Amino acid sequence: NAGxxxxxxxxxxxxxxxxxxxxxxxxxxxxxxxxxxxxxxxxRLIHYSVGAGITDQGEVPNGYNVSRSTTEDFPLxxxxxAPSQTSVYFCASSQDSNNYGYTxxxxxxxxxx
Amino acid sequence: AQSVxxxxxQVPVFEExxxxxxxxxxxxxxVYLFWYVQYPNQGLQLLLKYLSGxxxxxxxxxxxxxxxxSQTSFHLRKPSVHISDTAEYFCAVxxxxxxxxxxxxxxxxxxxxx
Lengths: 113, 114
Description:
The structure holds 2 protein chains of 2 kinds. Chain A is mainly beta. In chain A, 0% of the residues lie in helices and 51% in strands. Chain A contains no helices and 11 strands. By secondary structure, chain B is mainly β. Chains A and B meet through strand 4, strand 5 and strand 10 of A and strand 5, strand 6 and strand 11 of B.
């Protein structure tokens, strides 16, 4: 059972480049989310989805797009990378009740130069 | 909206000493509370959770946390820490009505030395 899989693990981008961070889960979880982790700021919610075809903004959505065409996949797109997006990105999923807690991926460390 | 405060950014302790990591939350309605642990270069793992019932919850590796509604706290404790407990610990809260977002504190780094 793979859980939540994130790719790539590391990425370096130049300012203005675009890329997609991939996230896939095999637990049939309805709820998926993207967080960014920055020193001293904890984890901040970027976007989340409560099911296929449904997404919504979190605390820090600017500069990021998401879509949820299937239950399994929840990719995060950076359309024009900026140095302020240098961070560690985590994808997480949970069953829809919140009672079970979240399962996190191992993260993507992104550097924008 | 709910929020979480972890006042201690770093807690250094010696091996086999007790430790308490503090967490306070703010919410006008009932909440679920969680502690997550992040070992170096890894994702977060659920350590324990409070949903309802007994206010004292325990994890399989000796940590416990007590929900105190009057003080809006959910402090994490362990009577005797090991070197392997060195990690960052995050407190998190979500509302217990419907489908709610999980809000994290800024984290506390526990440093256990011999």
